[in-house]
Queue: 2 jobs
Job 1
Amino acid sequence: MKLYFSPGACSLSPHIVLREAGFDFTLEKVNLRNRQTASGVDYTTINPKGYVPALDLGNGELLTEGPAIVQYLADQAPQSHLAPPCGTLERARVQEWLTFIGTELHKSFSPLFNPAASDDSKEAARANLARRLPIAAQALDSRPYLTGETFSVADAYLFTVLTWAGLVNVDLSPWPALRAYQERVGARPSVQAALEAEGLKR
Ligand SMILES: N[C@@H](CCC(=O)N[C@@H](CS)C(=O)NCC(=O)O)C(=O)O
């Protein structure tokens, strides 16, 4: 398998999951400004959506959309317990978090990285984050990971999104549970290895 990624982008989430599950995989960096891959290919010829992540499954299939990719990976490696079995309420809880992170957090950070976004849309995004981050913080007040005692694919995604706070001046200090969670997840060997491979480890 090959993961198309951009350093520190949301592709970090499936990158962490690939390592958590112990898959054999390669990485190819995508320059999101000119949509060229590191090997000089027009990325839109590989993934017409033009954004990362995309996972080349090595059998002619390309899988896109982070939440779909991480769940596919978890299901291919059930021994890693990165997601409960399909069809269970526990699995729906992981999907509930993945959807929350994608639609309420990830997409609220997006305008803050967009130089073309208006000040109004940036303010609205910050206000939305201020309303939504406490929801994650409250869950993590009483448990180490989003769905309980076990690290899941939702944690790979939340960790990834939280790394953006420092880049766009979103202050997480009102939520000590989020800061502790960043430390806890950031210390996992898979996360350390993914950050290193993406050139993000200081
Ligand atoms: N719906 C997609 C969104 C992916 C996404 O927002 N990717 C960003 C990086 S975090 C990107 O590649 N942006 C460049 C662009 O949209 O041109 C998913 O959940 O995987």
Note: The CA atoms of residues 136 and 167 lie 19 Å apart.
Job 2
Amino acid sequence: MSHASPSWVDFHCHLDLYQDHLGVIRECDARRIATLAVTTTPKAFARNVDFALGSPYVTVGLGLHPQLVAERSDELPLFERLLECTDYVGEVGLDASPRFYASFQQQRRLFDRILRACSEQGGKILSIHSVRSVAWVLGSLEENLKNPTCIPVLHWFTGTKSEAHRAIEQGCYFSVNAEMMRNAKTHALIRFIPEDRLLTESDGPFVQFGERPARPSDMPETVGLLAAIKNTDSAHLAEQVLKTLRAIQSIEPAVREGKQRSLFKQP
Ligand SMILES: [Zn+2]
């Protein structure tokens, strides 16, 4: 069965944290939203793959969230075993905010190991958390993710303009959400990032969209917000985001033994 190409991209959504996750998947299918369902622990991966099995638009990322590293570091071997099953990795990264600072050194060790494992296998697309730790994240990527077939996507980037410059030079992409764009301080940063390095995300259900948690179906409005900041029209930007998704998916299809990453679906 073939499916129509996606119309929208939600590159970072915590699908398993919605009470009606099956309803969210139905929305993704009905509105053709290519959605990356990030997970926070390797144990959650299999369950998420089960949810998404029938959906041509939802793909599951293998994650180990930096805020959970203190309790879940023993799941690293499971992460390493599952890594071969997927091209998508997330949510991973570092968090140096006060609440999680106690585990920061441990987070760094785990993140480095994750990046090295991704680099060894090649062909991975990563959704990366970098709260108060952009310089560390970029340093780790430079050191450990040397395989050019791996693509880092910085989710909810909050670094400085010079850090954004460094990230762009290192080949990073950026996924932006509505809450991020509501803060006018980010506008100059978003204008600085080239259009072909930007993806959209909901980061639902953590991010609020008006009075309710954000959903993948908010992507048309999110694209509209992004287009206004970039001073371009929404239809153009929607097309650009899809083009960017296709570009990162086809960086090195040879590593999948000639198998193209179809639409947005795991092989
Ligand atoms: Zn997240």
Note: The radius of gyration is 17 Å.
